[in-house]
Amino acid sequence: MKTKLNTLSLAFLLAAGMTTAHAAYIESGDASNDLASAQLATDMQIQGTIDQGDTGDVYRLVFATGGLLTINATGQIDTNIALFDAGFQALAGNDDSNSLDSMLTYVIGAGTYYIGIGDYAMYAISASNQAWFMDGLPPAGFGTVSRIENLISIDPGAYTLTLSLQPRSNGVPEPATLGLLGLGLLGMGMMRRKRA
Ligand SMILES: [Ca+2]
Ligand SMILES: [Ca+2]
Ligand SMILES: [Ca+2]
Prior knowledge:
It is a single chain. Helices cover 18% and strands 40% of the residues. The chain has 2 helices and 13 strands, in the order αβββββββββββββα. It has helices at 2-15, 175-195, and strands at residues 25-26, 39-40, 45-50, 57-63, 67-75, 79-85, 90-94, 102-108, 111-119, 122-126, 131-133, 145-150, 157-166. The chain has one domain: Jelly Rolls (Sandwich). The model is unreliable at 1-6 (pLDDT under 50). The chain has a 5-stranded mixed beta sheet, with no helix packed on it. The chain starts with a helix and ends with a helix. By secondary structure, the chain is an alpha+beta fold. One calcium ion is lined by residues 78-80, 95-96, 100, 102, 120.
């Protein structure tokens, strides 16, 4: 029940434009590094810590609307983050964007996503025990991820994840525009074929 209320309040925040001025979700104890037992974060800002021996923290987020998601990670640790979808597929990761801090952007639809964070060097471990260094895009066919894990060494410290979601209507092409663009490309393809 509490979970449901939290999900609703997050959805409400997201729908209201998410100017979460002062609120933040604070890591409860130590967040699990397993996606299946991730903590539900109920705010667009998340504050947590990587303690000695803490091999990674995963948060589950439920977005009421889609858009361009930006994740900024700052803190005392050498942040290393990745985004996963509801089916535990790795979408993208980042180690260093601004000095040692991580940042990534990704176009999402409404629904559930997972964000993993840890101290460099972080790896996503697949169900078949493959390891992907959480930076850039995962290899094709990487498969479902079971957990994230630090495979080098851990320098403990606090971190902050700051999320923002830009609705598709604000500058990102609408589906109708994309449709027109698609028609244009199709037209170009037909012209090329005619010339050949
Ligand atoms: Ca932690
Ligand atoms: Ca943890
Ligand atoms: Ca980093």
